[in-house]
Amino acid sequence: MIVALDEKNGIGRNNKLLCRLSGDMKNFKELTTGHPVIMGRKTFESLPKGALPNRVNIVLTKDEEKIFDDAISCSSIDEVMNLRVIKNCEKCFVIGGAEIYKHFFDLADKLYVTSIRHTFEDADVFFPEIDIDNWRINSVSDEFKADEKNEFPYFFAVYERIR
Question: Could you give the domains of the chain?
């Protein structure tokens, strides 16, 4: 899973990201390019330019008839997990939104987290709690200060599930 969250696990509001941090967007692109990305319908529809390039886009939706440009549509987690592209890949990313994170959380073995050093009081969707009894921090970056391209300070952390 890959996610940017605020200090209270907020990830979005009104079907949009809480903020756009240039460094986070660059990190997201570097990590996910070349790998399948799994998302919900609302997340797919919120992408400003449609399907993410150089990635197989997989959209989980309740609407079995829904077709998305340049994306694979699935109506269940089992259908996603049985896709050849998922079975044959070493790494794939769940990229949101909140319901999709909840559905796949117990299946994830790694979390790529951008921690934004800010609380957005108007956040209306949240990432599941990361229980430190089940996850260990594998790596943490230095903190990036707010600047002209990044309105808030942030850092990257990678968590691995304890098995």
Answer: 2-161 (3.40.430.10)
